[in-house]
Amino acid sequence: SGFTADTLEEFSPLFRQMGINVVQGGAGGDLHTNVPGPGWEHSLNPGESVAGVLVNGDWTVSGLGTVTYNDGKRVLAFGHPFLNLGPVSIPMSKGEVLMTLASAYQPNKMANATEIVGALHQDRHSGIEGVLGVTSEMIPVTMKVRSIGDRGQVAKEKDFHLNVFVHQKWTPYLMMLSLYNSISQLNEFADTSLSTYRLSGKVEMAGNQAISLSTMQASGEMPMPAPMMLAGWFGDRFNRLYLNNVTTPDVKRVNVTVDLLPERRVAAIEAAWVANT
């Protein structure tokens, strides 16, 4: 929910390679937190809708299904895998069904994820298991997108606030998807050879550690447009973090700013050498 048509078109092939078919959802404005809301004790009765939430905030990525069993604390649902990740910690929310498409071959429901009521702890071949009243960690992400004028002034800007699911495989892709969508929300967004995208940001880690991010991308001879190259670069930083074999990263917060500059900026290396052989 909340993604532009261009974003879905660009990223659908990537998600299909990971076994997921993405579809445009309805409104997702109720989801801005990973903390269970009031009344979670009486939610997710058998037959009701349940969702696993991968991204929430100004837009939402979630997968919805049907509750099979609820013993007052634990919930079994879907009857099939969600992402088939095994042990997980994914925010679990209620859902509302807007419309049912009846079919003897493959019936479908159109639904929205609503308020958080717990966390999914198992994602297996035969279904998912969640626990009511439990909080699942997410990464708070703030993205600021600015259009810079000819004199260096900020002509327009937009702020986006998200929470992203924490997982070695999925977090980099969700970060990449979110950055591209935030750029697409700017009215000046275009695939043009006369503009440059400048990114700066910070990844805050546990223990008061932080990683600074800085890069620029301009459309050139590569067939890939600059916004997609920038999103790919951003996702690759998180991929490198989560592939660390020594220490699993504990990311606490991400802040990033993207400036759209009204000119094409390029750099070339004229010479390179080492001081000592």
- In terms of per-residue confidence, which ranges show pLDDT below 50 for 5 or more consecutive residues? none
What composes the largest sheet?
6 strands, antiparallel, barrel
* Percent of residues in helices: 10-25%
* β-strand amount: 35-45%
Number of strands: 11
Order of helices and strands: HEEEEEEEEHEEHE
Radius of gyration: 21 Å
First and last CA, distance: 56 Å
* DSSP summary: helix tally: 3
Structure class: alpha+beta
The oligomerization state is single chain
Q: Sum up the overall morphology in one term.
A: globular
Structure description:
- The protein is an alpha+beta fold and 277 residues long.
- It has three helices and eleven strands.
- It has helices at residues 5-17, 170-184, 226-242, and strands at residues 49-57, 61-70, 74-77, 86-101, 108-124, 127-132, 138-148, 154-165, 196-205, 209-218, 251-261.
- A hairpin with a 3-residue loop joins strand 9 and strand 10.
- The longest helix has 17 residues, at 226-242.
- The mean pLDDT is 89.
